[in-house]
Amino acid sequence: MKNIGVIGAGAFGTALACVLARGGNSVTLWGRSAEKMNAMSEKRVNTAYLPDIELPKALMTTSDLSDLTNSDVLLMVVPAQVSRSVIQSDAFKGLTCPVLMCAKGIELNTSRSQTDILAEERPDLIFGAISGPGFAAEIASGKPTALTLGIADPELGAELQELLSTPTLRMYLSHDVQGVQLGGALKNVYAIACGIVNGSNLGESAQAALLTRGFAELTGLAHKMGAQPETLSGLSGFGDMVLSCTSMQSRNFAFGHQVGSQAGFGQTKTVEGISTALAVGALAEKHGLEMPICKAVSAVLQEELSVTDALTQLMSRPLKHEV
After folding, report:
1. Are residues 226 and 174 part of one domain?
2. Distance in angstroms (rounded) separating the CA atoms of residues 305 and 309
3. DSSP state, 235?
4. pLDDT in tens, 262-318
5. How far is CA 1 from CA 22, 44, 85, 166, 180, in A?
6. 12: pLDDT strictly greater than 90
7. Which of 137, 160, 178 is the last residue of a domain?
8. Measured between alpha carbons, how far is 68 from 92 in angstroms, rounded to an integer?
9. How many independent structural domains does the chain possess?
10. Which of 34, 166, 224, 321 could form a disulfide with 63 if both were Cys (CB 3.0 to 4.6 A apart)?
11. What angle do CA 297, 273, 34 make, to 5 degrees?
C-alpha cells in the first residue's frame, strides 16, 4: 500500500482522493479549514462539493500539511490562482516527494503553467501534471474515466501510472508535461465561449464552428509554447475540450451559458477559464498570434464588448484559408 497526499479538498481533489483510496491506497486529503476537514472526517462526506459520495475508509482528512510528509506522491488540486501561495507556505517546505499538478489554469500575473510555478518555487522537487476529460462527480461515483499523466522521467512515470490507475480510472502516460497542462488550461476559455453561444441560442452549428476554430487557436499557442501536436489531439487536449465545451457539468461552460443568457456573471471563484482568458492575451501577444476567439471572450468578461458586438467582430473578420 502506497501513501498518496491530495492537496485541495474541492470537488476534483475529493474525487481523486476517493477513487485512489478505493484502489487500495492510503490517501490523506488536505484542506485549509480545520472545521470543514473535521466535519468531513466525522460525517464521511464532503457536503459542500460531493454530498452524495461516501468517503472510503482508507481516506483520511487533515488541515495540517505536515501530515502529508510521508506521502509517496502528492497531487496538487488547489485552484490555479492560489497554487503559488500554497507552495510558498512554511508547511509545504517539509514536503519532498514528487508533486503532480492537477489544476487546469495559467497564472494570471505571470502567464506561467502550474509546473512552471512549482519549478520556480521548489526547483528541488520532481514534478508532473494530470489532466484530461473527467468530471468530479463521475470520477467519485466510480464511472469509467481516462486521464493523462505528464511527467518527464519515463521510469518514474511508469511507476506513477501504475500507482494512480484503478479499476475505474485509467491513466495514460505522456512525457510532454507542458502539452498536458496547456490543453487542459486553454480549453477552459473556449468552454466559456461555447457556453456563451449556447446560452445566447445561436445554434449548434455556431457552437461546433467555435469549438473547432477554438481548438485551432489552442493548438497554435500551445505549439509555440513547446507542446507536441500529438499531445493536444489526445485526452488532455481535444478530449478535455470536447467534454468541457458541450456539457453543463463544466463550470466554464455553465458560466458562459449564464453570460450568454444575460443572467450576469454571478459566482466566478472556481471558474478557471476567466483568469486564463485574461492571461492568454499576454501570451498571444508574446508569441505573435491573433487568437480572436480568446480575445473576444476576454473582452466580454471585462465588459469591454457585449456578446452581440463580440460575435459581430468575429463574423466580420477577413476571410481566410482554414489551415
Report:
1. no
2. 6
3. I
4. 877 765 556 888 888 888 888 999 999 999 999 999 999 999 999 999 999 999 999
5. 12, 21, 31, 13, 28
6. yes
7. 178
8. 9
9. 2
10. 34
11. 150
